[in-house]
């Protein structure tokens, strides 16, 4: 074989050799257009309800100082101990990608002087959170939360309102087989006495505990109550219950929350082992659980009161309460239920073209139509008129606007009624007016 030909073949072979595709980071997930319809449904309904309840939207950065979570969420929590994506910047700042939203909102409340706003301050937020957890079904390393918080009011009615709004969002979305699990973990004073009691109890059973619980017994004994290891769950069944050890103000507060819930007919399950994992919680804690097909229950969202957090982060003493849910979990639940979203995309008109000249005219006509609030679809590819008309049918369009080679030269457009098949030629300048007239009729 001549040398030049051989060289050409070598070059071709090299080009053909594929580079291996770059894969998504473990625990992360692409959210593609069909799924986005579901996400829009979840988020739009949630936003609307929050606005109806008087909440204003806030966005805080994904990156915060690591110290915010160490101080707010707590050094001895799973999240801070082992789940944060943290790094040092070139300027030596220690930053973390937020593992949850509340600490950032409390920082923003302080930093933006919201204590001077009329109280309570009601905020809602949504966005990605990051936790270095073992990926599994419904558990990702990047996931999204929708949440809302009320700062500046410690009344039990406010706790009930937050729970009510959480409940209402799920009802509105069509997730009705949920139950509210609720508990009170008291305030700093009654909780520390209870923690001592709990430690004493667990120390007597130390041999029956998993390694994690043995380790956590000193630093975070409350967490032992919600350990998912079978043997630890056994031990937890006879553990002292915090509800029996609340101080009088915490006891009364919790009683009031439950009375408000009774009043608005929200059913709840008292769960003495529900503690939530984070240090900032005080008094009311709750989770929304959904019954799953295996007969178990999974958590769609959780929240509670955190009266000490703002002060812990350097602000004034400010009671607060909030809730957040995982958007992936909710979207997956809706998918399992086979939700039918009425999202068949309807385009009032569909633009059909043949030839380069017509394609150029279509671009301008499309622009004019959407400026006139007429929903339009187009196919700028080189498909036949027949295949483009099939697309018009798929989009349920009432009219197809056809520009062939002749129309492109004459500056005219054929308006085809997709139902009757009747066609009429109109001049380009009047097409928008003519379409509007026909759409009204
Ligand atoms: P948490 O405050 O940790 O209870 O989280 C509140 C909600 O966020 C949970 O009930 C889940 O719906 C969701 N969530 C938490 N962690 C993850 C995760 N790793 N992946 C997906 N969703 C999560």
Number of domains: 2
Assigned CATH class of the largest domain: Alpha Beta
Q: In terms of per-residue confidence, which ranges show pLDDT below 50 for 5 or more consecutive residues? A: none
Percent of residues in helices comes to 40-55%
**CATH homologous superfamily grouping of the largest domain:** Bira Bifunctional Protein, Domain 2
| Distinct ligands | adenosine monophosphate
Radius of gyration: 30 Å
Look up the CATH topology of the largest domain. Answer: BirA Bifunctional Protein, domain 2
Largest sheet: 8 strands, mixed
Average of per-residue pLDDT values = 93
Strand content: 15-25%
Report the principal-axis shape: elongated
SS elements, strand count? 16
Q: What structural class do the secondary elements suggest? A: alpha+beta
Spatial separation of the terminal alpha carbons? 74 Å
The number of distinct helices, counting runs of at least 4 residues, comes to: 16
CATH architecture of the largest domain: 2-Layer Sandwich
Largest sheet, spatial ordering of strands: 1-5-6-11-10-9-7-8
